[in-house]
Write a structure and sequence with these properties.
Blueprint: H1 2-18, H2 31-42, H3 44-47, H4 64-74, H5 86-89, H6 100-113
Helix pairs in contact: 2-6
Bound molecules: heme C (HEC).
Heme C binds near residues 43, 46, 54, 56 and 86.
Length: about 120
């Protein structure tokens, strides 16, 4: 088992080093990369898991991908009907609400996740 872990770790390192100079352009950013900043800046203080105020941790996670998985599983996103997602219909309650641009980014992400 220990050897297996080492092999996997080496493979991850090799893969990570394969493209050291690749930098993302705006066009390469995924819809999630556009939506996450809106969520983390506006909602994560209370809905981010650790130190949360609300007890509703739909943004819990220590990486972008973990947060995405939490949010998908949380039930506050309605993939069949993005506009009806609880994350958007909840409306202002505590703290600031989304700007129109932030709503657009979140809707674009939800639509990008639709099968
Ligand atoms: C200052 C703390 C705070 C911030 C910031 C905050 N919330 Fe909340 N949120 C709460 C509390 C407290 C509750 C539970 C009470 C309630 O429902 O109002 C809650 C509940 C919720 C719920 C679940 C309950 C329901 O009615 O469905 C959703 C969804 C939600 N918030 C979305 C958001 C979104 C989206 C943002 C960012 C735009 C946000 N919240 C920002 C404190 C916060």
């Amino acid at each position: 088992m220990g050897t297996f872990v080492k092999i996997v770790a080496s493979l991850v390192l090799v893969t990570a080093c394969a493209q050291p100079n690749e930098s993302s352009t705006t066009a390469e950013l995924t819809a999630w990369d556009e939506a996450l900043p809106a969520l983390s800046s506006t909602c994560a203080a209370c809905h981010g898991g650790s130190g949360q105020v609300a007890g509703i941790d739909f943004l819990a996670g220590s990486s972008s991908e973990e947060i995405r998985q939490t949010l998908i599983a949380s039930g506050v996103i309605d993939f069949a009907n993005p506009y009806a997602s609880r994350i958007l219909t909840k409306g202002i309650h505590e703290g600031p609400w989304f700007s129109a641009e932030q709503v657009d980014a979140i809707l674009a992400w939800i639509e990008s996740e639709q099968p």
